[in-house]
Fold this protein.
Amino acid sequence: MNTLISGACWLPVLLCGIIRGPLVDGAPTIGGMTQLTDILNDDFNNSLKLSKKLLRETRLLTHDYRLWKLPGAHLAFLAGRSQNVPNVSIDFDSWLKLQPGDRLRLLNEALHVFPVYLDELETWLKGETHGISAHLKVKVPNVRFSLRDLLLHMQRQISSRGVSPPKVLSPTKLPTDGKDWCSRVQMFQALKALEQGLLRAVRDYTMLQSSLG
């Protein structure tokens, strides 16, 4: 009788362990899955906030750059994609179907080329101390550091998913010294392309967040 009672007392404990425990060795529990989803959601949310902040900073930088190097130039004339910036565009249907790992990899490839343009722009600003250029001396490093942080976010997120590493893309030719009109326009087009890449980052991280439910 005591044995029967003792067994009856242990039965709820055993059932609780079976219900709450993993069905397969190593499989996460429901609570573990919820915690993982929360962590991923926070991570993507931080990257989304950084993307929005960087997009705002880059738009202000592009505006000030145009006033500095291309005063009075008509925007319609300046529009267009620089041939020196690698083309990483993707059609809308293909973009919608991307898996999270591939979405992050392609986004990283789209943005990885721009730090060298920002480095070059910083060299143009050396020795400049007056007017708009003084403001640009602060804005360019801020954008460069924020872009570096965003790329580090992506690289960590990519590696955690075990997808193939991003391709390292480089500009075919950097605009030099900024003294001639052509190089000034090329730098402006590169900054506009960076804006487009960051707008895509905002959309991608919004999509990644929504995929977590």
In short: The chain has eight helices and no strands.
